[in-house]
Amino acid sequence: MSEDEPLGAEVDAEVDAEVDIVLWLAASARPDPPARLRGRIDAVVAPARAPEPVARDRPGRLLGAVALALCGAFLFQGVGNLVAGDWIADNLGEPFSGHAYREGAIALIAAAVCAAAGAVRRSWSGVSVLACVPLAVSLGVHGVGEIGVFAAGVALHLTQGLLGLLLVAAWWRDRRDTPGRSREEGA
C-alpha cells in the first residue's frame, strides 16, 4: 500500500495542475474583435437573419373566435362519439356500430384541427373554410331532422351549422382586410 501512495500523490498533483490550467483558460478575458471586423460580420449576418413574425398573417378576432368555436363543437362531438357512442345511438333509437362511431369520431377530430388552423394563421383560414363549412352546414341541416327526437343532437348540430355559416362570413370579412387597412386597427 505504501508503494502506491507516492504514485497516487503524483497523479493527483498532475490532475490538479491540469484542472488549474483549464480553469485559468476558461476564465481568461476574451478580447473584443476590432470594430471593422465586427462591421463586416454584421453586414453579412444581418441579411441572413430570420424575418420577424408578420402580424398580417394573424386572423382577425372574429375569424379566430368562430374558428375556435367550431373546433370546439367538432371536438365535442368527436370525443362524445368515442366515449358515449352507444348512449347516443340508444337515444336516437338506432343500432350502435362501434367501428362506424370510432371512424366518424376520428374524422370529426381531424375536422376540428382544420377549424383550429383558421384561428392560427390567416393564410390557413381558406383551408379551414373549405374543409369545415360543408361539414358544419350539412350537420346543421341533419340536425333539423332530430327535432323532437334528441334535443342534445339538435342543439349541437344547429350550433355547428350556424358556426359554419359564421365562419364563411368572418372569413369573407377578414380576407378583405389589407395589410395597410385593418378593421381591428381602426384604420
In short:
By secondary structure, the chain is mainly alpha-helical.
Can you walk through the features of this model?
The chain is mainly α and 187 residues long. The chain has two domains: 4-48; 59-175. It contains six helices and no strands. It has helices spanning 4-27, 35-48, 61-92, 98-120, 125-144, 151-175. Helix 3 runs antiparallel to helix 6 (151-175) and helix 4 crosses helix 5 (125-144). The radius of gyration is 32 Å and the shape is elongated. The N and C termini lie far apart (87 Å). The model has no long low-confidence stretch (mean pLDDT 83).
Give the key terms.
single chain; 187 residues; mainly alpha; elongated; membrane; transmembrane helix; Integral membrane protein; transmembrane
